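hey so u asked for the seq, here:
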Amino acid sequence: MRKGLLLGGGTVLAVAATWTAVAVMNDGGTGAAAPAASPVPATAEITRQDLAETKTVDGSLTYAGERQLTSGASGTVTWVAGEGAVISRGRPLLKIDRKPLVLMYGKLPLYRTLQRGMSDGPDVEQLERNLKALGHGDYLTVDDHFSYATEQAVKEWQDDRGLPETGRVDAAQVVFQPAAVRVTEAKAAVGGKTAPGQQVLTVSGIRRLVHVDLDTGDQSLARKGAEVTVTLPGGERARGTITSVGTVAETTGQEPDTSTTIDVDITLAKAPKTKLDQAPVEVEMQSERHEDVLAVPVEALLALREGGFGVEVVEGAATRIVAVETGAFGGGMVEIKGDGLAEGMKVGVPAP
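ran it, structure tokens below
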């Protein structure tokens, strides 16, 4: 009866007559009353505890910062880094007509040709810092000026990488990225043609993260800085922290099967054992914790005729309905607030 009322949205009578009947019968003609039957099928105590809503959602183990790289060169692709390869400073990402497109570190993209006689700028300093790190330019001063020493260091680097020794650096030779990258996908195939501005590689950072497309209905579970538990491929479990919560909802699919989600990124406390990219994972998320609250099992809730919920307080052979305000859910328990309710009181629940 209680399950049907709660889930079906039925009404609850002020007196639960079916649970409060007292059986009176004769015992061998003596007229003695039998013990009172329990007013409800079963009871549970109101407890005081901490509660937090938890939910397990699907996610994927991937790498941070995926982006597209383009080439400034025209020609035939003669070599390309393989999927999963990690490319560090000074190493080629691919080769066009056997000439390498080299990775250097920096946040500023290469937006102009770097050469002697150009105006000063932070892009010059960025190049010089890389030349120094790669062991070129013993007399080079790292600043924003493209000097004769800079030109000589560039020629030395070009000779080392098998590039024409022009003393100039352009987008056909170098790509700047903030740090080492991991090749996610090769857009250009060996033997294919490429042209300036054409996408040649999809790359990412080398830091692992878990990405979740979280249903907007579960936004309360996504708080930046909150801890989560991630179940990885093979059953490995790892702790993680929510480091990014999207602010723009994205709708996918077609009516009537549409879903609206926000992006949530999670940083793991330690590197996972698996090297798989886009591996499916499960993320156990938790809403804000409600501390020291009164709680009852969820099945103790009754749907009231006037709306909202109540619980049936059991006091000896009598019962009474108390309207309650619900709060956090977690572990099969629900937070309740109601007049006169206290820890240790008994409430009715369905028979086990």
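The chain has three domains: 2-52+290-349, 55-63+207-286, 67-204. Confidence is low (pLDDT under 50) at residues 1-35.
lmk if thats what u needed
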